[in-house]
Recover the amino acids of this structure.
């Protein structure tokens, strides 16, 4: 079945509404249990919004406003994909209840499409959808897991959703690193982590995974490399992460990237990551502590960057002019910072 047909199938199922009442009953019961758990002093961080009677009314009002706005400029097909809060709730029920991968997958696709609209990100959260989708991450089925990651990625373009999704970041990070190299599920995880790190707020949660990210970068195919670079760039732009980046272990093969006929864009983007780190590190202030960086760290790699640079700048190098200019400039700046006394 194609995606469109699957989504259509779920939507049709919703209209018929088979089993939906039981679903909603379950959902309501789940919420009540949540409430009780919290009353007992359980974790307050669970998605609790569905609890208050006002939430659903708010969600409905918000949806009505948004639907009106969308309908004004709607294309004839858009009605198929924009679901009402009631319908979204049913889809969430399916996600929560269904054990059949193809139903889960279809429900997740319908949710993901809806989460592409900003107003639905709030509604799905208000309906208690974040923990329901996040729970799917425990599945072993990589296709279902990938779909859940895509839904979370679309939902994560929202500050409040990010605040609630941060509790799943470690799990997503571990899953991403241990997934099969270059797989779709790994890429989906990397995209979610990238979206979760567009602001500085939750970046520190990845501090211990930077070595693994460099490993994925070195071993992965071009698509993996680009996605890891986006994530590393987010981290490198944040001065609070500079030390964590320099401390990370990098694979020895990172240097050989510069000899190979590597994609020019990958080398240039990696240089931007390095430049940000170089610019953000307070070299003079940190001089006494530089001995803390151990062999194999990014710090050491940069210290020996001259070797890579020589290969790129060498007469027989195949690299193009722009790459050479950028590498030359970066090397000069790095040398100035790292070896200030050796400059004449
Ligand atoms: C996620 O949102 C984008 C738009 O931001 C949309 O193009 C895409 O189809 C959505 N993903 C899924 C799985 O629905
Ligand atoms: C979030 O991720 C999606 C897919 O990777 C991307 O299209 C979108 O621009 C990202 N949003 C932000 C705010 O970075
Ligand atoms: C991932 O891509 C790299 C580079 O193309 C390749 O060497 C590696 O074997 C791939 N790994 C898997 C598991 O497909």
């Amino acid at each position: 079945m194609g995606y469109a047909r699957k989504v259509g199938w779920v939507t049709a199922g919703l209209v018929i509404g088979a089993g939906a009442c039981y679903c909603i009953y379950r959902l309501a019961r789940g919420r009540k249990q949540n409430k009780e758990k919290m009353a007992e002093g359980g974790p307050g961080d669970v998605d609790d919004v569905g609890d208050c009677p006002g939430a659903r009314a708010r969600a409905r009002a918000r949806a009505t406003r948004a639907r009106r706005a969308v309908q004004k400029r709607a294309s004839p097909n858009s009605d198929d994909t924009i679901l009402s809060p009631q319908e979204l709730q049913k889809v969430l029920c399916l996600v929560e209840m269904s054990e059949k991968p193809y139903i889960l997958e279809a429900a997740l696709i319908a949710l993901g499409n809806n989460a592409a609209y900003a107003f639905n990100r709030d509604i799905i959260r208000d309906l208690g959808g974040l923990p329901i989708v996040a729970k799917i991450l425990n599945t072993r089925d990589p296709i279902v897991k990938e779909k859940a990651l895509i839904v979370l990625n679309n939902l994560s373009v929202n500050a409040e959703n990010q605040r609630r999704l941060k509790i799943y970041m470690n799990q997503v990070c571990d899953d991403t690193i241990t997934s099969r190299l270059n797989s779709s599920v790994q890429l989906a995880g990397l995209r979610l982590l990238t979206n979760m790190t567009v602001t500085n707020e939750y970046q520190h949660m990845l501090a211990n995974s930077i070595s693994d990210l460099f490993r994925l970068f070195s071993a992965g195919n071009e698509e993996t490399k680009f996605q890891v670079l986006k994530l590393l760039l987010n981290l490198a732009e944040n001065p609070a992460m500079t030390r964590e980046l320099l401390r990370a272990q990098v694979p020895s093969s990172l240097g050989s990237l510069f000899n190979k006929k590597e994609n020019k864009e990958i080398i240039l983007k990696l240089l931007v990551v390095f430049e940000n780190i170089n610019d953000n590190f307070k070299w003079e202030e940190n001089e006494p502590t530089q001995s803390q960086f151990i062999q194999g760290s990014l710090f050491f790699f940069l210290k020996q960057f001259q070797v890579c640079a020589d290969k790129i700048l060498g007469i027989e190098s195949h690299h193009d002019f722009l790459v050479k200019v950028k590498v030359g400039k970066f090397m000069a700046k790095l040398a100035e910072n790292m070896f200030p006394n050796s400059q004449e």
User: Anything to note?
Assistant: The pocket of 2-acetamido-2-deoxy-beta-D-glucopyranose (ligand 1) is lined by residues 109, 112-113, 116, 150, 154 (CB under 6 Å).
